[in-house]
Amino acid sequence: MSIEALDELPPADELALIRDEMRRLKIREAVLRRLVLDDPSLRAGHAARVIVQEQNRREINIAALPPEIIRDSRYWTMRETEMLFIECAPAAAVSPA
Fold this sequence. Notes:
Number of helices: 3
Radius of gyration: 23 Å
Distance between the termini: 27 Å
Helix content: 25-40%
Low-confidence stretches: none
Largest sheet: none
Number of strands: 0
Shape: flat
């Protein structure tokens, strides 16, 4: 579907299509990621190359925190976030001609 055709859709339909494409691309990215990690010879292309670099980061183990910290509201922050869920209409029944 072209960009112009997307612009003609109602925003809810366009958002649903974009999310579907993002889901498809994330799956494809995961497949390609696994390929280049498993086979270093696949890391060089015609226009790009993949550089693999390890990184360490610090994470907190919430399960190891003392219960008095977990129960103490001073250590927690509540944030409200607007979330959008897509509910697709059922496909229209095709009537025999």
